[in-house]
Amino acid sequence: MYNYHPLKLFILILSCCFLTLFLFSGERGVEANADHHHHHHAHRHLYSRRPTKLFVFGDSYSDTGNNRKSEASSWKFPYGITFPGKPTGRFSDGRVLTDYLAKFVGVKSPLPYQWRKVVGGQHLKNGMNFAYGGTGVFNTLVSDPNMTTQIDLFQQLIKQSVFNARDLQSSVALVTVSGNDYSAYIARNGSDQGFPAFITSVVNQLYLNLKRIQNLGVKKIAVTALQPLGCLPRMTANSSFQQCNANQNGLVNLHNVLLQQAVGKLNNETKDSSILILDLYSSFMTVFKNKGDRLGSIRFENPLKPCCVGVSSGYSCGSADENGAKKYTICDDPQTTFFWDEVHPTQEGWRAVYSALQATMHQLL
């Protein structure tokens, strides 16, 4: 997919890091990162009340049912077979990252935005999920609400007094960016040379999005680092799910370095807010290395091999031919696999990631 020589890639990434440090830093770039740690420590105890609401923005890693039933595989069997036993619009056999974060924070998984009128107001008490599978910070191959639009919808609800200032102050936001902007860039034949500049523009836009969520009144935000895209089954299939694509993971590392700089800057600019990076890169890698979580209760024999796959190219998990015959195969037990389909973890995969992340998540409480 990319033909970077590893050394060239390294030099490229290094030069880009200097470039963007410059872009982000203003006058206080280096010291900003230095006092970042102290800042968190000082402000960790600002809120004695536990969060009461979760607001979610992003893509299929956090979508719990906003996608259109007519279009998304997440509404087709066998999605949802583990939980709740039928498809509910989650891109997994069961729970996704949102569900685990909600559990950690101590609220029920928030209602998907598209169902807000179908069910009564009492369901709004847990917050709301605006995430939409396939979207990015910019427009992707899905024409639907990119992150700016998702935040617009949130802002409209605040203006309509669906959520008030107190709701927002005692809430947490989850923001997931899982690489759809980059898939769209490749699909539109973006050049390899242009990739670093495009990654910079994605993170710059994400910075603006996070700042806007803060300005709307949400004081605590968890944002995901990019997972190792080079280890997704769609990238490892040609090595029989044995080997990650190092070039692609090099680009992921550039995104994650820039994200750290952006979050460091935001945390220094705001005294009463904190943004936490959920490091999906290292938690995925930890799980792959240990073939499960560190507690050893979960075993994935080959973590890179998905449970549900299309029978041939052109077909994917959940697809059927014109006669309705299924065109995918499914493993005997999704609990023994980390990946559900070619890009999404199983419920058990997310549980392992969650247990690897948990130690860092306490500042959200």
From TrEMBL:
Q: Which SUPFAM superfamilies match?
A: SGNH hydrolase
Provide an example Pfam family for this protein. Answer: Lipase_GDSL
What CDD domains does the database record attribute to this sequence?
SGNH_plant_lipase_like
Residues in the signal sequence: 1-32
| GO MF terms, alphabetically ordered | hydrolase activity, acting on ester bonds
Q: Which GO terms describe its biological process?
A: lipid catabolic process
Keywords tagged on the record: Hydrolase, Lipid degradation, Lipid metabolism, Signal
The record's family statement is:
Belongs to the 'GDSL' lipolytic enzyme family.
Q: What is this protein called?
A: GDSL esterase/lipase At5g03610-like
Q: What species is given as this protein's source?
A: Rhamnella rubrinervis
